[in-house]
Amino acid sequence: MVSLQGKSIKLRALETGDLDLLFELENHPTVWEISGTIAPYSRDVLKLYLENAHRDIYDVKQLRLVICTLDNEAIGLIDLFDFDPKNKRAGVGIVISEEGKRNKGIGTEALEILCRYAFKTLGLQQLYANILEENYSSLHLFKKLGFELVGTKRDWIFTEGVFKNELLFQKIFR
């Protein structure tokens, strides 16, 4: 089994104490833009989600992990979604909660750990990411870790009266 700990961060399962982090991130407009959400999540709905977060990735087709410092401060989330064990692939999403903690290597380390886990433990052959064209930080992160641009979904996201392009990146384990 691949370790979910790096030099400065670790990935861990969701816990009931993560309600505030989940509430903040799931109700942030920048997350809505890419998740297709159009209405806020209540704390009650998110509590129910947390109560079921223990369910197996093979059952719910998603694995959400909390990105933490080594002293267990929760600083973001990283997901495998659309898990498809037959075709050995999944989508990847990542968000660091505070803007001041972004672009400091946390996302790189978290994504490296998740990729190792997906390829070595889950036996996936490929991961993909959907990234808005103007999200330069995410574009840099995924390119740095070997994800390749494979397509453009033109006018894919409609937000604030404007259509935006979404780019599709893949990383194939070889």
Structure description:
The chain has a domain at 9-123: Aminopeptidase (3-Layer(aba) Sandwich). The protein contains 6 helices and 7 strands. The model has no long low-confidence stretch (mean pLDDT 91). It is of the alpha+beta class. The protein has a 7-stranded mixed sheet. It has helices at residues 19-26, 29-35, 43-51, 57-60, 106-121, 136-144; strands at 9-13, 63-69, 74-84, 89-96, 126-132, 148-159, 162-172.
Order of helices and strands: EHHHHEEEHEHEE
Point out poorly predicted stretches: none
Major sheet: arrangement of strands:
1-2-3-4-5-7-6
How many helices? 6
Count of beta strands: 7
Strand content: 35-45%
Quickly name the level 1 CATH class of one domain: Alpha Beta
End-to-end CA span: 19 Å
SSE-based structural type: alpha+beta
Quaternary assembly: single chain
